[in-house]
Write a structure and sequence with these properties.
Chain lengths: 505, 101, 162
């Protein structure tokens, strides 16, 4: 029993408990009390309870000191099924904030009558992500990954009036199932070779040994599995369809929260458990290990994501391909394989998540008002609804990496970390490639902005009416993107201290 | 116990490859699900065998969880197929082509 | 004796697995899947994982299979006749999977595998104790996962009244 009682465990997982309780409360209230109420009231009540749960969890995470067992470092309990340190808490707060924003941008859409279920599933997916972030055990990684994915499949299929939604969910499900099978097979081999499913024990068993071919196979399979989850080429095929067919708020959630959690645990698994099996990813110095595998995946993602995004006519699809490209950039942080790399990865993926949430928020409103999400339906948005146009401009430019927005600083920091990594700037080839590709990406982001500001609206040029709540939320997101770009140390400083603390364990 | 771990791993590898082949080649969504189950079960077999030969029970615990998760996943997957069938009267992958750019 | 049993069960598992993907009729595929999984339960017994063998049979033959058959009947799927197999796809598929299998086989060959003297018996008591001590957290998460699946399945397969 490793010396810990059930009540202590309960206290430890309080944030997750709060969110799950909020989910149950939302479900119960919506189904029992609010059944007959008009849709708006149902949504507001449900979202209020959901928001309350998330808010309490955030407050708990920020206010409570890390458990007394270890004031400075974190702790890892129950065979590593629950790790808790400052860094993990920070990522959890980021996840909860993204959940809050997802709830907020769902507010105005009416694609479903099952509001209680929708909100509850978003919360339960968040619970999965929170557990995922704090797992240091292969079993826990698998279970929480499945909880997250299962909720996301259902959220994707939520629009029952639309065929595309069901189809998108099926594709997402099929690829997700494949990914689960690959991850599992890889992890089972890791377990076989290390004799343990705990990160720290795997590390102590494997770091000294020479890299066997079977271990290499296991690593490749694990990378394949996570490659599906983070939508990196060549495992990206589900992403465009899933983003396009899913209800827009669900797509936003898939693109933000689940990305953050998957990237974090992927990096943790690689850097902690497989430290010692890196190999070498430097140009012309490839040696087997996970670095060259991840480097190849990153290069392919940047290339294909950016090139395919150029020809897209649907903004949701465009954002999907841009997400693939961004997965490629973010992998650079993992390739740095250092503390600096880790902090740059988290900073990048968190700011990316917030930006893309905002972009999807704008898309949701435009889609709602004009009927579809094709690029041409954004025509004249700058005049029809100046605030929305301005927000979209901020998001697009941040995604393209224009200073002084968060996207620019994120990329800058990623690239510096990658250049500094390894001997003789071995990752330089990939960084140069990434910079070239971000120049390409500017083209398609500007394409969207051109529609918004230059091309006049063809059919309907009346102003778009947007409720005050949506305006506040989108402006808030845009503000966050600007502030994090101008003052990156707000987040980055905390990240760096947290990573330092966490590594002193 | 005379059968070495190697043999179990080979059986599990064959099963995994068969499942993967089925996922790639078959067109019926239900059969694809079955092949996914085969792949998961290949992992299960590997885990149980590894658990035996590493002399700890972690692998078996993991299999217990995988079986439960697989059952939940199948139920959701089948519900998705039913939802799609209601709209499109099809359960074939080639017909999943509503979304083209 | 148990050596022969291994080969019998292993052959059954693999052959039935192959028949799952070869059969044209989904019902037959489903049946062979059960057979494959049941013979795998036999392998579990040989590995002293008694509890898992029972769970495997119960869950797969009892629950998953019924679900599959139920949906096949519900959708009234016919045999796959209307479509020809895409030869190019089939060849590349077989080739790539064969390559993966070969790499895997070679890596098993070339890697020293663990070979501990096994004492661990996978009976219910031991597993149950582990589930409620070290692995109590994932166990509880499973309950959330089942809740998600339940909500999702009801929501997706229910007809909307409007």
């Amino acid at each position: 029993m490793s010396g810990i009682s059930y009540s202590e465990i309960l206290k430890l997982v309080a944030p997750e408990m709060l969110v799950s309780l909020a989910a149950l409360a939302v479900l119960a209230i919506d189904l029992l009390v609010m059944r007959e109420a008009p849709q708006r009231y149902r949504f507001w009540t449900g979202a209020a309870f959901a928001g309350l749960g998330c808010g309490l969890a955030i407050a708990w995470l920020l206010a409570m000191n890390p458990p007394p067992h270890s004031m400075s470092a974190g702790l890892s309990l129950l065979q590593g099924t629950y790790a808790d340190d400052v860094l993990v808490r920070l990522v959890k707060v980021a996840l909860l904030v993204m959940t809050l924003f997802t709830l907020a941008i769902s507010m105005e859409s009416n694609f479903t009558d099952h509001i209680g279920e929708y909100l509850a599933l978003i919360l339960l997916a968040t619970v999965g992500m929170m557990f995922l972030v704090s797992s240091e055990n292969l079993l826990m990684v698998f279970i929480s990954l499945e909880l997250t994915s299962l909720s996301l499949y259902i959220l994707t299929a939520f629009n029952k009036r639309n065929v595309e939604s069901a189809e998108a969910a099926l594709k997402y499900f099929l690829f997700g199932g494949m990914s689960a099978a690959f991850t599992l097979f890889g992890l089972s081999l890791v377990y076989g070779l290390a004799g343990s499913i705990q990160f720290s024990e795997i590390y102590s068993k494997l770091h000294a040994a020479k890299i066997d071919t079977l271990l290499l196979a296991a690593i490749v399979m694990t990378v394949i599995g996570f490659g599906f989850k983070i939508a990196a080429v060549p495992f990206h095929l589900w992403a465009p369809d899933a983003y396009q067919g899913a209800p827009t708020p669900s797509a936003a959630f898939i693109a933000s929260g689940s990305k953050v959690a998957s990237f974090f645990i992927f990096a943790k698994l690689m850097m902690q458990a497989f430290a010692g099996a890196e190999g070498n990813g430097a140009w012309r110095h490839f040696t087997p290990g996970w670095l060259p595998v991840v480097a190849t995946v990153a290069a392919c993602s940047m290339l294909l994501g950016n090139l395919a995004a150029i020809v897209q006519g649907n903004v949701k699809r465009l954002l999907a391909y841009s997400a693939i490209a961004h997965a490629g950039y973010a992998l650079l942080g993992l390739l740095s394989n250092s503390q600096q790399g880790m902090s740059s990865l988290i900073y990048y993926i968190v700011t990316y998540g917030l930006t893309v949430l905002g972009a999807f928020g704008v898309v949701a409103i435009v889609e709602e008002r004009t009927g579809d999400a094709s690029i041409s339906s954004f025509a004249g948005l700058g005049r029809r609804q100046p605030l929305l146009g301005l927000c979209m401009m901020v998001f697009m430019l941040s995604l393209a990496g224009i200073p002084p927005l968060a996207g620019f600083f994120g990329k800058f920091y990623l690239f510096t970390a990658a250049i500094g990594a390894g001997k003789d700037m071995g990752m330089l080839w990939l960084v140069i490639f990434a910079i070239a590709m971000s120049a390409v990406s500017l083209y398609y982001y500007l394409q969207v902005l051109k529609q918004i500001y230059v091309v006049p609206a063809v059919e309907d040029s009346r102003p778009i009416v947007v409720p005050v709540s949506s305006r506040i939320i989108l402006s808030l997101l845009a503000l966050v993107v600007v502030v994090l770009g101008c003052a990156p140390e707000l987040l980055l400083g905390r990240l760096i201290t947290a990573i330092k603390l966490a590594s002193h364990q | 116990m005379h059968i070495p771990l190697e043999h179990y791993l080979i059986v599990s590898g064959i099963l995994f490859s068969l499942g993967l082949l089925g996922v790639i080649m078959r067109r019926n969504l239900l059969v694809i699900y079955m092949c996914l189950e085969l792949m998961l079960n290949a992992a299960n077999l590997a885990l149980v065998a590894m658990s035996r030969f590493n002399d700890n029970l972690n692998g078996q615990i993991m299999v217990f969880f995988i079986i439960t998760v697989a059952a939940a996943e199948v139920s959701v997957g089948l519900a998705l197929i039913v939802a799609l069938y209601r709209k499109r009267q099809t359960a074939h992958v080639e017909d999943l082509t509503t979304m083209k750019n | 004796m148990s050596d022969y049993l291994f080969y019998i069960f292993a052959a059954l598992t693999v052959i039935c697995g192959a028949l799952v993907i070869i059969n044209k009729n989904p019902i037959n595929s489903a049946m062979f899947l059960v057979l494959s999984i049941a013979s795998m339960a036999g392998l579990f017994v040989l590995l002293h994982a008694f509890f898992l063998a029972a769970v495997q049979v119960l869950v797969y033959a009892g629950a998953v299979m019924v679900l599959f058959l139920f949906v096949i009947m519900l959708l009234d799927l016919k045999e796959e006749q209307r479509r020809k197999i895409n030869t190019f796809g089939a060849v590349t598929g077989v080739a790539s999977v064969a390559a993966i299998g070969y790499v895997f086989y070679q890596s098993i060959r070339n890697t020293p595998l663990p070979n501990a003297v096994a004492h661990s018996e996978g009976d219910t008591v031991v597993l149950g104790k582990l589930l409620f001590t070290d692995y109590v957290l994932p166990f509880e998460i499973l309950s959330i996962l089942l809740l998600v699946a339940m909500v999702g399945v009801i929501l997706l397969s229910k007809k909307d009244l409007k």
